[in-house]
């Protein structure tokens, strides 16, 4: 386990089941936990419940869910009695030099925080979090595919759009299950690597030509990739599992109109393997907390 957090006050604001595993691990390192949005959860010994504003004022470090905030700034708070919204009003209540950890936020909110001198650390974008988190994400995506297809993944024509941290893990797992995996990427080095790993490499520029062959499509790209034009070429029997951050990379409304089953699946680690996902956070966050809590604002950006 990483360096101790003795005496550091952590406000854990919102979240899901993974926070219930994460919080006790932080306590073992000596952190004092102030929880907001856990009124409906089973009590965690030693955690003090507080209102959002109180937790923000009293904490040394603010921890929001890895799930991030949606377009309205709404934070997942599975065990809360009321909505939690990360907006400019909440940002204004944060004391100076309090690092705020969250999976990701909208660029406009990040820009507003920068102007206020608030350091937001988007942890879902950090390799040390995202690479470890790709395993429960990939397993969850495969589980969803198994539930919503009428075929086995073994032997299926499975397309993975985007060969990033989650895409590589997902492609490897599908290959291990015996799927015929096509890896879709833009970078020539990713396409070359896909070939060496036994995948069928496909540039995004050729996806329109080939997508009609796909039986299962896993999208990891957090921008609109599966637009109307591509969906028109997609088999109506195909299933799309979109694991990109909200709002995903699929035109879901048009897919529904065409009769294509398309599912947005953000926050998969917390749903598929909450204990593992919580322990990943507990492994990585202590180092991040100490790094950002003690360093000047400009030295770690």
Q: Any descriptors?
A:
single chain, 301 residues, alpha/beta, Rossmann fold, 2 domains, six-stranded parallel beta sheet, 12 helices, 14 strands, 40% helix, elongated
Description of the molecule:
The protein is an alpha/beta fold. It has 2 domains: 9-125 and 273-294, 3-Layer(aba) Sandwich (Rossmann fold), CATH 3.40.50; 129-266, NAD(P)-binding Rossmann-like Domain (Rossmann fold), CATH 3.40.50. It is built from 12 helices and 14 strands. It has helices at residues 17-28, 52-58, 88-92, 107-115, 127-148, 165-176, 188-196, 207-210, 228-233, 252-258, 268-272, 274-294; strands at residues 9-13, 32-36, 48-49, 61-63, 74-75, 84-85, 100-102, 120-122, 157-161, 180-185, 200-203, 216-219, 239-242, 261-264.
Strand order of the largest sheet: 3-2-1-4-7-8
Unreliably modeled segments: none
Tally of DSSP helical segments = 12
Q: Nearest-angstrom radius of gyration?
A: 20 Å
**Per CATH, which architecture of the largest domain?**
3-Layer(aba) Sandwich
The computed structural class is: alpha/beta
Topology of this structure?
Elements lengths: L8 E5 L3 H12 L3 E5 L11 E2 L2 H7 L2 E3 L10 E2 L8 E2 L2 H5 L7 E3 L4 H9 L4 E3 L4 H22 L8 E5 L3 H12 L3 E6 L2 H9 L3 E4 L3 H4 L5 E4 L8 H6 L5 E4 L9 H7 L2 E4 L3 H5 L1 H21 L7
Parallel strand pairs: 1-2, 1-4, 2-3, 4-7, 7-8, 9-10, 9-12, 10-11, 12-13, 13-14
Antiparallel strand pairs: 5-6
Helix pairs in contact: 1-12, 5-6, 5-12
């Amino acid at each position: 386990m990483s360096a101790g957090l003795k005496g550091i006050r952590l406000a854990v604001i919102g979240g899901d089941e993974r926070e219930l595993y994460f919080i006790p691990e932080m306590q073992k390192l000596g952190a004092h936990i102030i929880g907001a949005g856990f009124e409906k959860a089973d009590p965690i010994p030693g955690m003090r419940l507080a209102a959002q504003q109180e937790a923000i004022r009293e904490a040394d470090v603010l921890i929001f869910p890895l799930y991030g905030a949606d377009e309205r700034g709404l934070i997942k708070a599975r065990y809360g009695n009321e909505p939690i919204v990360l907006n400019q009003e909440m940002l204004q209540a944060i004391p100076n030099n309090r690092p705020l950890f969250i999976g990701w936020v909208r660029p406009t909110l990040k820009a507003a925080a920068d102007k206020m001198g608030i350091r937001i650390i988007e942890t879902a974008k950090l390799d040390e979090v995202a690479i470890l988190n790709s395993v429960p994400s990939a397993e969850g995506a495969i589980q969803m595919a198994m539930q919503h297809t009428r075929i086995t993944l073994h032997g299926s024509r499975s397309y993975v759009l985007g060969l990033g941290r989650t895409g590589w893990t997902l492609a490897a797992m599908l290959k291990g299950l015996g799927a015929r995996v096509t890896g879709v990427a833009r970078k020539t080095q990713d396409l070359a690597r896909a070939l060496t790993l036994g995948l069928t490499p496909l540039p995004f520029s050729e996806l329109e030509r080939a997508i009609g062959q796909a039986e299962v499509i896993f999208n990891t790209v957090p921008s609109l990739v599966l637009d109307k034009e591509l969906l028109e070429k997609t088999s109506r029997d195909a299933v799309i599992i979109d694991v990109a951050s909200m709002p995903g990379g699929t035109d879901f409304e048009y897919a529904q109109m065409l009769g294509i089953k398309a599912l947005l699946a953000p926050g998969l680690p917390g749903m598929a393997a909450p204990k593992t996902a919580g322990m990943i956070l507990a492994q990585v966050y202590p180092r991040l907390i100490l790094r950002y809590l003690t360093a000047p604002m400009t030295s770690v950006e």
